[in-house]
Recover the amino acids of this structure.
């Protein structure tokens, strides 16, 4: 069967579809979707500069193409005129880029000062601590501590205070704004107001060692009532476990777990994530896997097999103990 | 194409066959070939590392390599490509072409040139020995503190990285001093600075960048070495250290380094385009000024690498504006290249393909650079794949395209054989397409949130374009393999190249392909830009008569001391990983090599007079250049001391231990030694044997007295409880004054060596230049002490 023109057209269209399909801009971690005031300010200037640079590129490429097409060598061509320069032209194309840059520079400076200001009074403060390789979130005004999944209310100013207990990390949730380094010995901050409820992905953007790739963060921007409900649930003490979960709690209290993890009313470790309401989180290991009992069990048995370099030691738990412990952790809603 | 027949000159050239002749060679052309082949080997290694990175990322959740290996791969890929591939490939062209293009017979210091190469080789081998030791560096080519501290990187990985970077830095520094002196002093008669070819100009700018940009990172690496080996606190947050210190020191070097990598390519393109458009370079003076301005501004923009670090809006705004300003001279270059092509008769050779490719691809890289010159945009783009795309458009699309343009352009000159132009154009198109397939999609990946340096990613919107990018990377590998095939075919049976295959414009085309060991039978005089072209095509058809050679052409004799000295340096660096005895052995070999090196041609009449185009002796000019870099070295140490002042979390504090009266005495002693140095030089110049011995010995003695004061002060401080490890004050104080003391010690050794020469009756008035060079160094070290004394002891 010879390919018909119609067939060829269909293949071409399918090809384009694949290319464009592969180029979806509205993806969970896209920097080209703005869901906060800061992200929107950045995106506006991002767009402006993109169009200006595309314009410059088109001019340069057009001239280059024209020159190459217009002036090829031909056999027997005489020597071209030996032009050595043209002062006026050269002054012109020194000044012109300067003017174009002004178009970029002025809004840039405006946005720098607009997006790096102090947070307004009444902003919700969250202390963000970047650890190798997970995120800790503390809400001083609410008395809450959680990890890897950050809940924020929509429409209310937020200030994230970034603290580094070990090495440098960088907090980046593209749809909520640009990244900011978490530097030990310094306190950086990000002030923003998320404007649309939803789930936004991010991850550490500064190389921080073996599992840099496995240091992801999820931000849930909730409607104000939903956020209030979440706060109430987090403030409540964890429910007392029953059945297999109660066995798991016994495993937890007699193992090394208590040295690093806090479960309110059970243990008070501070080197690992707070697990008081672990069961309310969707993922484990800083966005590594869905927090199913199966996955938690696998994690508890050999954490380093799932997350290279992880600071959590191999506890030597057998399958039954690990499963019971996983059931307990999953029950901590 | 007529080279005027000349009476065959009398040349004293060394015999040149066999392996030993290559090891001991000091011929800039052979050293260029050594640099080129070695760097190409490292380039292939860095390419294999890149392919493994792309294989791992071809699919989500890749399992080709482990996370740890992946981190080592991208660290080594970056370090290798920058320090072991692109920089030395540029150095290969500097070595081979610069003396030819300025009409010189060799570089100013041929043996130092060999030393640079051998130290470079040692550094490259040391870095890659880390693979064999099983601890490859894995903290990124930028090695951000405190991930590089013992606490977070306990193995030898970071040690290999920092030690080999120091070795490579020494090699670059020696080469840079050499090329600055060569270019300023060895130009053919009539070649004023503004008549120099653009490639020579860009080389000169790059050497100044190396001399001024390496010292800050050298100091940063010294701090890291002390932190890791001796327990100091430069990057220790708990002791009051500031992690931004490393970032500043690294990027004050790191951003000029970008121009160190790209400006040579700009120079090559500025030679290739006029040749193949058969027109002069459009606006040569403005091309020179813009290149120099890019280099100059390059020092004022480093913090644009730190927009996410939290420097505050004022610093962000300032560095943003400075960065945007660099776009202006860069844009001027692109417009002038287009104007050079405009109205020409363009011969579409392979070299021209690559040069035009550079204009197109670098434009893309430059424009994406403007995007992240805007801090708000940068906060979304930095450390994402958008930046990976950007930097590869600059370094492959820019530097590598330029290097390939240079390779195709100068290959006939270097090998005496032509390359297959048809296959060459195939290679260009294969590389061009594969490069864009690899890196253009990475703009998209970064925009949709894919960070750099991640060994794995979940299935989702990133999967498809990562696969495409990996396929493209193998296309690039195929293009490099094709280049190897083309090169080997040319070496085996390529058509012989005439002296001037391209109807060239610059002096290298005036001599045979390959050139004779002495380069030119007669040094051609220069009466303007493109003199050689005008001789062929212009109204003044007859070349000017060359100046008559007064004596036979003297070529430097081969020497094995460069390789011995370099071996000592390499052994000493490796010793830091093995045993202190190995360090001592390496240091002794280095000293032995250096002294033998220095005395090898002492009193050889052919080496007596080395005054050049500027009317200044090479050695003096070289010393001034070195002192320029030393200013930056001590400036960085002093700035760190001041920045860390008052940040110690424990005592003792400066006012509790510093003893101003005693230090005033030692300062006075050092000042007086400068006076004796002046007297010594005057005595040597007069030929007054007695006084020269007296004052040389006196200067050395006063230096020793100063060192004695310092030893007393140090032991006294240690008894007071101030050690290197005690607090930040101890760390900064001992490292600063210790390195100054080290400089004084070297000066004393140098003076004693001169004194011994003098006592043996081998230091006459004709050797005064050697005392003068030592004196410059001595006075500089004294001036540094006055600054240290004022800022550390006197300012409260």
């Amino acid at each position: 069967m010879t390919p018909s023109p119609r067939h060829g057209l269909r293949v071409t269209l399918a090809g384009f579809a694949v290319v464009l399909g592969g180029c979806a801009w509205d993806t969970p971690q896209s920097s080209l979707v703005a869901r906060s005031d800061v992200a929107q300010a950045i995106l506006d200037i991002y767009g402006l500069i993109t169009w200006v640079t595309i314009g410059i590129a088109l001019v340069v490429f057009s001239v280059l193409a024209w020159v190459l097409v217009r002036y090829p060598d031909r056999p027997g061509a005489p020597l071209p005129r030996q032009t050595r320069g043209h002062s006026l032209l050269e002054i012109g194309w020194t000044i012109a880029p300067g003017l174009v840059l002004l178009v970029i520079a002025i809004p840039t400076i405006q946005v720098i000062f607009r997006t790096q200001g102090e947070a307004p009074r009444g902003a919700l403060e969250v202390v963000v601590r970047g650890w190798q390789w997970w995120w800790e979130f503390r809400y001083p005004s609410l008395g809450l501590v959680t990890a890897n999944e950050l809940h924020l209310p929509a429409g209310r100013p937020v200030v994230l205070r970034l603290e580094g207990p070990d090495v440098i990390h960088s907090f980046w949730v593209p749809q909520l704004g640009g990244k900011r380094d978490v530097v030990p010995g310094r306190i950086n901050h990000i002030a923003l107001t998320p404007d649309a409820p939803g789930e936004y992905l991010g991850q550490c953007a500064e190389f921080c060692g073996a599992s840099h790739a496995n240091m992801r963060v999820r931000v849930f921007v909730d409607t104000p009532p939903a956020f209030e409900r979440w706060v109430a649930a987090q403030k409540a003490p964890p429910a007392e476990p029953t059945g297999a979960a109660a066995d798991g709690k016994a495993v937890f209290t007699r193992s090394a777990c208590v040295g690093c993890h806090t479960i309110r009313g059970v243990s008070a470790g501070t080197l690992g994530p707070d697990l008081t309401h672990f069961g309310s989180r969707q993922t484990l290991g800083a966005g590594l896997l869905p927090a199913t009992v199966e996955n938690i069990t696998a994690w508890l048995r050999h954490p380093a097999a799932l997350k290279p370099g992880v600071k959590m030691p191999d506890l030597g738990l057998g399958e039954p103990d690990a499963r019971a412990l996983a059931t307990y952790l999953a029950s901590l809603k | 194409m007529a080279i005027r027949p000349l009476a065959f000159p009398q040349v004293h050239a060394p015999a040149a066959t066999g392996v030993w002749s290559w090891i001991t060679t000091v011929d800039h052309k052979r050293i260029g070939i050594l640099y080129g082949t070695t760097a190409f080997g490292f380039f292939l290694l860095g390419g294999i590392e890149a392919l493994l990175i792309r294989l791992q990322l071809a699919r989500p959740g890749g399992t080709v390599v482990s996370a740890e290996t992946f981190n080592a791969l991208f660290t080594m890929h970056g370090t290798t490509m920058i320090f072991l591939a692109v920089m030395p490939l540029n150095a290969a062209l500097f070595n081979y072409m610069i003396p030819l293009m300025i009409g010189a017979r060799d570089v100013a210091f041929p043996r130092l040139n060999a030393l640079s190469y051998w130290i470079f080789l040692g550094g490259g081998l040391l870095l890659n020995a880390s693979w064999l030791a099983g601890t490859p560096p894995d903290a990124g080519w930028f090695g951000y503190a405190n991930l590089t501290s013992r606490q977070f990187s306990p193995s030898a990985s970071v040690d290999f990285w920092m030690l080999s970077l120091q070795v490579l830095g020494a090699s670059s520094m020696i080469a840079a001093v050499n090329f600055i002196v060569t270019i300023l002093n060895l130009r053919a008669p009539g070649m004023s600075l503004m008549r120099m070819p653009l490639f020579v100009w860009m080389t000169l700018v790059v050497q100044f960048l190396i001399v001024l940009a390496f010292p800050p990172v050298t100091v940063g690496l010294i701090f890291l070495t002390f932190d890791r080996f001796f327990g100091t606190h430069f990057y220790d947050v708990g002791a009051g250290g500031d992690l931004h210190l490393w970032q500043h020191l690294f990027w004050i070097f790191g951003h000029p380094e970008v121009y160190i990598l790209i400006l040579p390519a700009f120079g090559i393109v500025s030679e290739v385009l006029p040749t193949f458009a058969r027109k002069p370079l459009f606006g040569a003076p403005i091309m020179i000024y813009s290149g120099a301005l890019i280099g100059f501004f390059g020092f004022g923009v480093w913090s644009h690498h730190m927009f996410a670090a939290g420097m505050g809006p004022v610093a962000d705004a300032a560095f943003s504006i400075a960065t945007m300003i660099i776009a202006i001279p860069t844009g001027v270059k692109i417009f002038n290249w287009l104007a050079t092509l405009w109205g020409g008769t363009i011969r579409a050779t392979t070299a021209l393909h690559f040069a035009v490719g550079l204009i197109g691809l670098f434009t893309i890289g430059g424009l994406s650079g403007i995007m992240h010159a805007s801090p708000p945009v940068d906060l979304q783009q930095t450390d994402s794949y958008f930046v990976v795309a950007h930097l590869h458009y600059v370094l492959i699309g820019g530097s590598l395209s330029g290097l390939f343009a240079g390779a195709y352009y100068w290959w006939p000159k270097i090998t005496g054989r032509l390359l297959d132009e048809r296959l060459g154009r195939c290679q260009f198109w294969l590389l061009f397409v594969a490069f864009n397939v690899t890196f253009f999609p990475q703009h998209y990946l970064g925009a949709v949130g894919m960070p750099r340096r991640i060994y794995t990613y979940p299935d989702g919107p990133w999967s498809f374009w990562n696969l495409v990018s990996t396929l493209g990377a193998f296309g690039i590998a195929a293009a490099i393999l094709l280049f190897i095939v083309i090169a080997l075919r040319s070496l085996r049976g390529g058509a012989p190249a005439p002296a001037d295959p391209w109807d060239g414009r610059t002096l290298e085309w005036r001599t045979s392909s390959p050139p004779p060991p002495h380069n030119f039978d007669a040094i051609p005089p220069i009466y303007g830009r493109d003199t050689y072209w005008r001789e062929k095509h212009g109204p003044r058809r007859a070349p000017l008569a060359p100046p008559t050679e007064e004596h036979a052409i003297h070529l430097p004799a081969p020497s094995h001391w460069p390789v011995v000295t370099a071996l000592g340096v390499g052994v000493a660096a490796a010793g830091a990983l093995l045993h202190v005895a190995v360090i001592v052995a390496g240091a002794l070999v280095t000293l032995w090599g250096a002294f033998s090196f220095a005395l090898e041609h002492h009193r050889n009449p052919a080496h007596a007079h080395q005054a050049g185009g500027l009317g200044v002796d090479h050695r003096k000019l070289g010393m001034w250049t070195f002192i320029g870099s030393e200013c930056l070295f001590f400036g960085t140490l002093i700035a760190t001391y001041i920045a860390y002042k008052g940040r110690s979390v424990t005592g003792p504090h400066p006012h509790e231990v510093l003893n101003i009266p005693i230090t005033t005495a030692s300062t006075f002693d050092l000042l007086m030694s400068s006076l004796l140095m002046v007297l010594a030089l005057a005595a040597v110049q007069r030929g007054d044997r007695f006084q020269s011995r007296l004052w040389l010995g006196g200067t050395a003695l006063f230096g020793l007295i100063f060192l004695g004061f310092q030893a007393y002060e140090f032991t006294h401080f240690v008894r007071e409880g101030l050690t290197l490890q005690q607090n930040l004050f101890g760390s900064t104080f001992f490292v600063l004054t210790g390195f100054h003391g080290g400089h004084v010690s070297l000066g004393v050794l140098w003076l004693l060596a001169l004194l011994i020469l003098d006592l043996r009756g081998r230091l006459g008035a004709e050797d005064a230049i050697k005392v003068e060079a030592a004196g410059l160094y001595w006075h500089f070290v004294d001036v540094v002490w006055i600054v240290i004394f004022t800022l550390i002891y006197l300012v409260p």
About this structure: Chain B touches chain A through 92 residues (CB under 8 Å). The two ends of chain B are 71 Å apart (CA to CA). Residues 652 and 722 of chain B are 6 Å apart (CA to CA).
